[in-house]
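General statements about sequence and structure are easier to judge against a single worked case. In the encoding step, the backbone of a single protein was reduced to a row of integers, each denoting a local shape. The record that follows shows the chain in one-letter code together with its fold in token form.
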Amino acid sequence: MADAQLVDLLKSGGIDAWNQWRQSHSSTQVDLSRAELSGAMLGEMDLHNVNLKDANLSQADLNHCNLHKADLTRADLSGANLANANLNRSNLTYANFFSADCSGADLTGSDLTQTNFLLANLNGTNFRDTNITEEQRKSARRRVLF
């Protein structure tokens, strides 16, 4: 379950405050599972290796966000802005990217089992070494890198 103090810091502390906290607590396992972060402004934040299982990130701004090795299992990212985000080696199993902007995002090595990309913008998205299926590709908008 998400730590309420960390959710508050993430939502209201700003980029510098959050990233500074992450740097000074680098060994802390951050649990934001089931966090309510819909519409949150999280662009450029360091969320690497964070547990975001079942989190609601719908309509959130995650552009240029570092989500390297994050666990986004069953997370709702519908309508989110993930342009140029680093999702390298993340767990995106059953995540919902319906109508999300993933343009320029790096998903290299991520687990995309049952991930929903319906109507997502995948222009320039890097899917190298992922398990994306033909059906997932067809449901999304075009121009992706493999």
